[in-house]
Amino acid sequence: MVANAGAHTLLTLADVSKRFPGSPPRTVLRDVHLDLRAGECVAIVGESGVGKSTLLNLVAGLDRPDGGRIVFDGQELATLGDDAATLLRRRNMGFVFQAFHVLPNLSAAQNVALPLLLNQVPRAEATARVAAALAAVGLDGRGDTPPRELSGGELQRVAIARALVHRPRLLLADEPTGNLDRETAMRVLGLLRALTRQHGTAALLVTHSSVAAAAADRVLQLTPDGLTPYAPPSHAMRAV
Q1: DSSP code of 228?
Q2: What is the model's pLDDT at position 5?
Q3: Model confidence band, residue 187 (pLDDT cutoffs 50, 70, 90)
Q4: Would you call 127 helix, strand, or coil by DSSP?
């Protein structure tokens, strides 16, 4: 049963395709269809090079499809100019990446505060929200800690706190557990799902990990012909 089945559709991809230039041009995505509800988590699995990260870039408005439509909460992304797309992304989307992308010269709290700074949240409110976000990911009292003193799992928790501190409507995660061992990955994914459910945030994960996929409400496989429901082979669930 899909979580939040009664929730409205937040994100729609209809017949989306993407090509890259070359001789001949290389089609990476074709006939991609997806409906993502508010509060739902969908994991997308697929072979390397099939276009999973490209798909996230399209959803984020960082790139534009060559065909089809991407609609976020009733707004077709292709109709937005660069400034409007940047503003929509800044206010409504959070991002978690395999490589963490935690800035080494900033403390944990300063890293988490970045989306609030970009969204011009008043300082007092931002300070309170950063403290609450760090506490929610189990890093209460660690705000002044530099990234070099944090483990991989702790760095990813900082990244999750940063992705959710501005209460985005959509979380995009690209291989969020790729640099973590199985046990740490399971803890991080459990935390991510708990926080997205708490805030009603929709989540779209791309991953090769069965552990990450198992945390989702639905799992879809990206192939050269689009997205299809994924039925893993029995041995695949042992992989991280």
Answers
A1: E
A2: 56
A3: confident
A4: helix
* Vertex 74 angle, CA 69 and 77, to 5°: 45
Whole-number Cα distances in Å, 213 to 72, 111, 153, 189: 23, 27, 18, 10
Domain 9-238 in this protein, CATH class: alpha beta
- Binning pLDDT at 50, 70 and 90, where does residue 25 land? confident
- Residue ranges per structural domain of the chain: 9-238
Distance CA 129, CA 132 (A): 5
CA–CA gap between residue 49 and residue 81 (Å, rounded): 29
Q: Taking the chain, what is the end-to-end CA distance rounded to the nearest angstrom?
A: 24
The DSSP code sequence of 13-40 is: EEEEEEEE-SSS-EEEEEEEEEEEETT-
Each as own residue / partner, the long-range contacts of residues 226-231 (CB below 8 Å, 24 or more positions apart, any chain) are: 226/30, 226/31, 226/32, 226/33, 227/32, 227/33, 227/34, 227/44, 230/45
For the record, the structure tokens of 99 come out as 């490589």
Q: Is 79 helix (H, G, I), strand (E, B) or coil?
A: helix
- Look up residue 210 and give its amino acid: S
